[in-house]
Write a structure and sequence with these properties.
The protein is an alpha/beta fold and 416 residues long. Helix content is 31%, strand content 26%. The chain has helices at residues 15-26, 63-70, 86-97, 101-128, 147-161, 172-178, 200-213, 258-262, 325-335, 384-399; strands at 7-11, 30-34, 50-51, 78-80, 140-144, 167-171, 188-192, 196-197, 217-219, 224-230, 233-239, 244-246, 249-252, 271-282, 291-294, 299-304, 307-316, 346-358, 364-367, 374-378.
């Protein structure tokens, strides 16, 4: 069956679902996108907006051990709410087993290749549309408070160089001359030249508008209850209202909720909902010229016009736990030690949402061989906005039986 004869259902109107729709409609498919929330409330819109191609996975060597020191501190980069939870315990053990150097090297090979593909996808989409998302391709700075961490960051940058990502070391005085917002305590930064920043909400909303104009149906406030399975084949979805929608292919791109829906047809995608936070502030005397990370705090910072977004933290507390105000406060308080005036700036928006984190640190992208008609795109953790366009392209290629631009067992749904 040709792409033009296919009806494709996509569950999830975040960046990955919309990117999948983009590449499918370009192939002539009839596409329907479903999401239980309005586009503006999607988790993709809460992303930091730092498009860091070549970013490592969560499963870095030593991270699980460091996490043990952080896990009970509500202001730490990783907070785990103490509770009896078998799924969480299994996830943590699997995560720990993957925090090895050999595995890290394998994942970086794949993630860097996916990053290069995503850079091309962003440029292609933005050149073909009128999306205004404050796209800034000037790279990003890994800003360090101490010489020791600056040295370590430089070593990481040298490792990335083998995958085609350029970086340079900048001392603190040079950084302050370029951007007076940086405080005197900054030792310097590593500048990664190949990445970008954008407004996640503007990009997501703009892509949705472009898709609608091209004939893609986007239905929001529309909750999928389960997948329709006839024999071994997935043939569509059943909505909470009882309505059934059929399709030749169904793409499951519902973020951390993908696991719950996958389990309705016997597929498990072991993920934890890792809550992330952001704060937007205005009224600063100056702005950084490009996005940055505040190395020792794991906070990501992105400038959008007159607004500065500070985002970060991973909080494993389950779906129903309330927001932790301390974690929002920490973003601006810690940010103020690196960036002048951030801790006293006017807060215009606060947000918290769930990042889909797999136990092995890698996203899930592609077909499910034992369930024909089902394709999965999820598990990108903090890298959903960065890798969403490339993952959407891979999904479209898989749906249309094309040779994929990138194929790896580390991405395959079959690994579960």
């Amino acid at each position: 069956m040709s792409a033009s004869e296919r009806h494709i259902l996509i569950i999830g109107a975040g960046v990955l679902g919309l990117s999948s729709a983009w590449y499918l409609q370009k192939r002539g498919a009839r596409v329907t996108v479903l999401d239980r929330e309005p586009i503006k409330d999607a988790a993709s819109c809460g992303n930091a907006g730092l498009i860091s191609f070549g970013h490592p996975p969560l499963t870095r060597p030593g991270v699980s051990v460091q996490g043990l020191k952080w896990m009970f501190d509500k202001r730490s980069p990783l907070y785990i709410k103490p509770r009896l939870d078998g799924d969480l315990a299994r996830w943590l053990w699997t995560f720990h087993r993957h925090c090895k150097q050999s595995y890290y090297e394998q994942t970086m090979q794949v993630l860097c290749e996916l990053g290069h593909l995503s850079a091309d996808c962003f440029e292609s989409i933005l050149s073909e549309t009128s999306i205004d998302c404050d796209w800034n391709r000037q790279g990003w700075d890994d800003v360090c408070m101490y010489e020791e961490t600056l040295d370590h960051a430089e070593e990481e940058a040298k490792m990335l160089a083998q995958f085609g990502f350029e970086a340079e070391r900048i001392d603190g005085d040079s950084l302050r001359r370029e951007a007076p917002i940086y405080t005197d305590s900054i030792a310097g930064a590593i500048r990664f030249k190949d990445s970008a920043t954008l407004s996640p909400r503007a990009f997501t909303a703009g892509l949705a508008r472009e898709l609608t104009a091209r004939g893609v149906e986007i239905r929001t406030e529309c909750t999928v209850q389960d997948l329709l399975k006839r024999g071994d084949r997935i043939e569509g979805v059943r909505l909470e209202t009882g309505e059934e929608l059929t399709a030749e292919a169904t793409v499951l791109a519902a973020g951390v909720w993908s696991d719950q829906l996958a389990r309705t047809v016997g597929l498990k995608i072991p993920m934890q909902p890792a809550r992330g936070y952001h704060r937007d502030v205005v009224g600063l005397d100056s702005m950084p010229p490009r996005g940055c990370t505040l190395n020792e705090t794991f906070i990501a910072v992105s400038p959008f016009h007159d607004t500065l977004r500070l985002a970060g933290t991973l909080e494993l507390s389950g779906f129903n736990a309330p927001w932790l105000k301390d974690r929002l406060t920490h973003l601006t308080e810690a940010g103020g030690t690196y960036l002048r005036g951030v801790d006293t700036a006017t807060v215009t928006q606060e947000w918290a949402g769930f990042r889909p984190c797999t136990a092995d640190g890698m996203p899930v992208v592609g077909a499910v061989p034992r369930l024909p008609g089902l394709f999965v795109g999820t598990g990108h953790a903090m890298m959903g906005m960065t890798l969403g366009p490339a993952s959407g392209k891979l999904i479209a290629e898989a749906v249309c039986d094309e040779t994929p631009a990138l194929e790896s067992p580390l991405l395959a749904a079959a690994r579960y």
